[in-house]
Write a structure and sequence with these properties.
about 260 residues; mainly alpha; about 0% strand; rod-shaped
């Protein structure tokens, strides 16, 4: 991804401006520096999300294979231990491990596996969305900061006109007008690519989440009609009360009705 400062330099070069990029950045004042800081944060977040939001990272092939082998043999406890192992940490293991743990503690057992997977998936997706939401926040804040710089610059220009005696020289207004214009340009240069990348990351996340959902359904199919919820141990049966034995050859006394 191209940094917004490089884009600003390219635009200035096309306009044939005699000022350097550093001079334009300095013209933006403290608001310009804040926008530049946000641009670096946005680039870092976007690169991080591009690395994280991949099928190979969210649901590694080796992890899927090992889980499928364990579940096909009905080894639920071993599957939970595998998902909780930090060495196997991934979106899939966190999601499936949380669902298996909930089902193993529930009196309904794996009858509620589907709902457990849905709730765990929502939590993990929300966790993955936080960094992407930060990119969207920067895309919204950057043009507002540019507008703030524009307003501050225009206020400074009118203040210069009001306190000057006679005709105001252009060099007296140059600083305020430069602040008013350059911050708007900087804010838009940061906001436009950040908005585009935010939309791309959300669509990519939805695609990856759908792929992981298909994987969890395949894994959950090994547990259909499988282990039942744990039940309390049955109470020992009471021994039958012994009946008095009848001696052979001795007839019982029959009472008249």
């Amino acid at each position: 991804m191209t940094h917004p400062l490089a884009t600003l330099g390219l635009l200035l070069a096309q306009d044939g401006s005699s000022k350097s990029l550093l001079q334009y950045v300095n013209s933006g004042g403290w608001i310009g520096y804040v926008i530049i800081l946000l641009s670096f944060v946005a680039v870092g977040l976007i690169i991080t999300q591009l690395i994280r939001i991949r099928i190979a990272a969210l649901a590694p092939a080796e992890t899927r294979f090992n889980l499928e082998q364990l579940l096909s043999r009905g080894e639920v406890k071993e599957s939970i231990a595998f998902c909780q192992d930090p060495a196997n940490d991934s979106f899939l293991t966190r999601l499936f491990g949380a669902a298996l743990t909930r089902c193993s503690r529930s009196p309904f057992g794996f009858l509620e596996l589907k709902s457990a997977l849905e709730e765990a998936g929502q939590l993990e997706t929300a966790r993955l969305n936080r960094a992407t939401d930060a990119v969207g926040l920067i895309a919204s804040v950057a043009p507002m900061l540019g507008l703030l710089g524009t307003v501050v610059g225009m206020v400074g220009a009118f203040e210069t006109i009001s306190v000057s005696e006679g005709v105001t020289r252009p060099d007296q207004l140059a600083g305020s007008i430069s602040l008013a214009l350059i911050t708007t340009v900087m804010g838009l240069i940061v906001a436009i690519p950040a908005t585009a990348m935010y939309t791309y990351l959300r669509n990519r996340m939805d695609h990856c989440a759908a792929s992981v959902a298909e994987t969890t359904e395949q894994l959950a199919s090994h547990l259909e009609g499988g282990a039942a919820p744990p039940r309390a141990a049955a109470a020992p049966a009471r021994p039958a009360s012994p009946r008095p034995a009848t001696k052979p050859g001795v007839a019982r006394e029959v009472r008249p009705a």
